[in-house]
Design brief:
two-stranded antiparallel sheet; mainly alpha; 7 strands; 26 helices
Length: 630
């Protein structure tokens, strides 16, 4: 995934770096004043690493062969730094002058011996020192300012900043890179800022490829590439959710990566997913020692039941196979199932990529009906479910109707496609490749196209029917395939309010199984839950009278005072007897403990954001931030 994202970023990074390099060399002659170079990058569908890659390329751009050192200086500006023009200029100036002109360690300046940190004249003096230290006469180094989330910046502050910086060029070779989330058309810059300011800028656009195309490329090159074999194959429900989230909520590659990571985490909740990697339990002796322990018997039972019910064992051997079953035989069956599934998935990917190639060929030759309303992810989901019959049926019917020249080109495309598949696929599809080769050789001998196109179209339809089948038919498929498992959407879009309320009201549901109690007495609840439950009970009573959701400190403390101890068993019984004997002596100490526990619970509620302090009453009324359910 990271390699694919970098490959998608590469053209944009190259374009931005090239624009920065020629920003002060490729200028229009005869301008009344120099223009401030600005490069806008539309980054709504990119990863957060795009500008890190741009920064790295700019700062590391050197050519030692011709002794042409062209290292640029880069600083980053965020919306939180640009509330005022003074803060903005301070961020830009200090982002550069804090570095050593000779490339050494960062330096610290004394305020009394230098200009103000927001004065751009300080940056000019520092840049002259840089040029003198590098013996640069032509000022090749650029001062690049990357402005993140440009739409969130205050327009008036940005306008003042550009006017100040434009008055210092070309003495200061500043270049601004703007990170835009809005689409390139209509342009946010031209729609927001006046013409008087735009006249000072020379804006160059470097848009990122379309978000939909980026999504399709990543899915194709990750899970539907014949040369790449993922450990886990995602199912149609994960693809559907990823596409919906990407198109409706956030078209970010980071979001897509998080969705795929969550799908993998959800898949590994299944105990049998321990067999996803090859030899997950080590060698056969090590696996036998692990699986024959008493704690592993339920897992071994489940594994045996799955293997016994699968097609790995012939129906005639079901009655006797369990008698001779060993750990080695079970693990051998799992390895057989792994090889079967992976080869079936790889042949499915090959057939799907061939279908896309045939579809593209038909579109190029003017058969627009093959496109339909189905996108590439839709075709992926249909292929994984084994429901592409209508699609490849229509394509094969068009193959039979191709003209002689078109059919010759088509056979050449299919022949070249199978020539690029992996070697193991060539071995498995030897008969298929031989048929394609036969048709190719017949066309080279000027055979009649009409005699070949019909049988070739029929054979191609049978090939798709044989290879594009549901992966759920493979034995033990759920170990390496997510299938139709619902995607855990609550993890990517959580509800913190509902989770916090549930944790406060029913804390037993969030403790380890060994510590859960069947009873729901306040003695077993933490103080914060006792205080919150008492608050809810009081809210219900008062809401019926005055609809007021407030509580006072004595009411909450009285709830905690009814739970004198949380210790259990014999220790709790012994302490209860001691308290019964010396009640008078320990009453004052007990009241002090109640107050301490109450204040601690109140602080915890305040930390969670449930408490809002008000000064309307002398008794310090406390009110919850969230509206509590009645």
């Amino acid at each position: 995934m990271q390699e694919l994202i970098h490959s998608l970023h590469a053209p944009v990074v190259e374009s931005v770096v090239e624009q920065v390099k020629k920003s002060y060399t490729d200028e229009l002659p005869g301008l009344p004043y120099p223009e401030l170079p600005v490069v806008s990058v539309t980054s709504s569908s990119t990863s957060s690493s795009l500008f890190d890659e741009i920064s790295f390329r700019l700062e590391e751009s050197t050519d030692e062969l011709f002794d042409d050192i062209n290292e640029h200086f880069v600083t980053h500006v965020f919306p939180s730094d640009c509330t005022t023009i003074t803060g903005t200029m301070k961020t830009i100036v200090t982002g550069f002058v804090s570095r050593s002109p000779t490339g050494g360690q960062d330096i610290k300046r004394k305020p009394s011996t230098s200009l103000a940190v927001y004065d751009i004249a300080l940056l000019e003096a520092w840049y002259r020192a840089v040029c003198d230290a590098r013996y640069e006469r032509h000022h090749r180094s650029r001062l690049v300012v990357i402005m993140h989330d440009f739409e969130q910046l205050e327009p008036q502050v940005v306008q003042d900043m550009f006017e100040i910086c434009s008055s210092y060029i070309p003495r200061l070779p500043l270049v601004f890179i703007l990170a835009l989330a809005s689409p390139p058309s209509p342009s946010y810059i031209r729609a927001t800022y006046p013409h008087s300011m735009l006249a000072l800028l020379r804006v160059r656009d470097c848009p990122f490829p379309l978000a939909e195309k980026s999504l399709h490329d990543i899915l194709l090159e990750t899970f539907f590439d014949p040369t790449f074999e993922p450990e886990i194959m995602i199912g149609p429900t994960t693809i559907d959710f990823a596409v919906e989230f990407f198109t409706r909520h956030s078209s970010s590659l980071d979001g897509l990566l998080s969705i795929l990571q969550l799908a993998h985490m959800k898949h590994f909740e299944e105990p049998l997913s321990v067999f996803v990697p090859t030899q997950a339990l080590g060698r056969s002796k090590d696996a036998e020692r692990v699986l024959l322990t008493p704690d592993a018997f339920p897992f071994l039972d489940a594994l045996f039941a799955r293997v016994h019910e699968s097609t790995l064992i012939a129906p005639a051997e079901h009655a006797s196979s369990w008698r001779s079953a060993t750990v080695d035989s079970l693990l051998s069956s799992v390895e057989t199932a792994r090889d079967t599934f992976r080869m079936r998935a790889k042949l499915l990917r090959v057939a799907f990529r061939l279908l896309l190639r045939v579809r593209q060929f038909m579109l190029i030759h003017g058969h627009k009906t093959v496109q339909g309303d189905q996108t590439v992810p839709d075709l992926m989901c249909l292929a994984l479910r084994g429901r592409l019959g209508s699609v490849y049926g229509h394509l094969c019917s068009l193959v039979r109707k191709l003209s002689a020249a078109q059919f010759e080109d088509f056979v050449r495309v299919v022949h070249d496609f199978f020539g690029d598949v992996p070697e193991d696929v060539k071995t498995e599809e030897d008969e298929v490749i031989s048929r394609v080769g036969t048709a190719y050789n017949m066309l080279c001998r000027d055979a009649s196209t009409q005699k070949i196109s019909g049988p070739f179209g029929n054979w191609l339809s049978e090939y798709f029917k044989l290879r594009i089948v549901a992966l759920e038919d493979a034995p033990l498929w759920d170990i390496w395939y997510t299938g139709s498992t619902p995607f855990p959407s609550e993890l990517i879009n959580p509800s913190p309010r509902a989770s916090i309320l549930a944790g406060l009201i029913h804390p037993q549901d969030y403790v380890s199984p060994g510590r859960q109690n069947e009873d729901d007495e306040d003695d077993d609840l933490p103080d914060i839950s006792i205080l919150f439950k008492g608050y809810l009970e009081m809210v219900v009573l008062e809401a019926r009278k005055r609809r007021v959701r407030t509580t006072r400190i004595p009411d909450g403390a009285s709830g905690i005072s009814r739970t004198p101890s949380r210790k259990k068993g014999k220790q709790k019984q012994v302490e209860a007897e001691v308290v019964g004997e010396d009640t008078g002596e320990d009453e004052e100490e007990w009241l002090m403990e109640v107050q301490v526990r109450f204040i601690r619970a109140l602080q915890e509620l305040d930390y969670l954001g449930f408490i809002k302090h008000t000064g309307r009453k002398a008794d310090h009324v406390m009110r919850t931030v969230f509206d509590s359910p009645e």
